[in-house]
Amino acid sequence: GDSVTQTEGQVALSEEDFLTIHCNYSASGYPALFWYVQYPGEGPQFLFRASRDKEKGSSRGFEATYDKGTTSFHLRKASVQESDSAVYYCALGPLNTGNYKYVFGAGTRLKVIA
Amino acid sequence: GPKVLQIPSHQIIDMGQMVTLNCDPVSNHLYFYWYKQILGQQMEFLVNFYNGKVMEKSKLFKDQFSVERPDGSYFTLKIQPTALEDSAVYFCASSLGLSNTGQLYFGEGSKLTVL
Fold first, then answer.
1. Quick one: pLDDT at residue A105?
2. Of the partner residues B56, B105, B107, the one whose CB lies closest to the CB of residue A101
3. Nearest Cβ partner for A100 among B56, B93, B108
4. Which residues from chain A sit within 8 angstroms of residue B99, using beta carbons?
5. SS3 string of chain A?
6. Cβ–Cβ of B43/A96 closer than 8 Å?
7. What chain B residue is nearest to A107 in terms of C-alpha separation?
8. Per-residue pLDDT tens for B55-102?
């Protein structure tokens, strides 16, 4: 079945460090790819998406580029802040071929130390 | 931005009892979802719902689970009877469409504790 793999379970950085969270997917079709962020005690919030190969999604300084060749959608940010501490989820969207669900990765917990 | 409201935020019940989790989705949204998250673990898909029907459900959506949205009111998840392994945070989500550009809006979750 369709799946999303996030390599890092936890990432600890200092403020102004560069962030990379790796996301790879496996899907039978050509799904949209998403990043969501979840703060403690809240539901996940949409960060951004990309719908086709080579498209870059971005928001709040975070960005990721859809790479169909390597089936990846890695999250990057040039300079993290303490307020970025949260859990980040990569997800793939419905394929409209009898598959109607969004599939989430296991999540990566980011802790940024001031 | 658009809000999904979930009631209750926390419920504690005894094993074997029935529980109903309520969700008020974004007003013009057509697709509704329930996800389950055990503390500190992955968000896992349970079910989605459109036009009065279940579109797709996962293996986690056991026979004891049911969903409905009578007459445009709350979208509900009912568990009857509950089991210890049902303890988790249940997130409701809604989306406007199913196109590749759609996004999910999540509620803040209903934490269920089964004793």
1. 94
2. B56
3. B56
4. 96
5. CCEEEECCCEEEEECCCCEEECEEEECCCCCCEEEEEECCCCCCEEEEEECCCCCEEEECCEEEECECCCCECCEEECCCCHHHCEEEEEEECCCCCCCCCCEECCCEEEEEEC
6. no
7. B42
8. 999 999 999 999 999 887 899 999 999 999 999 999 999 998 876 567
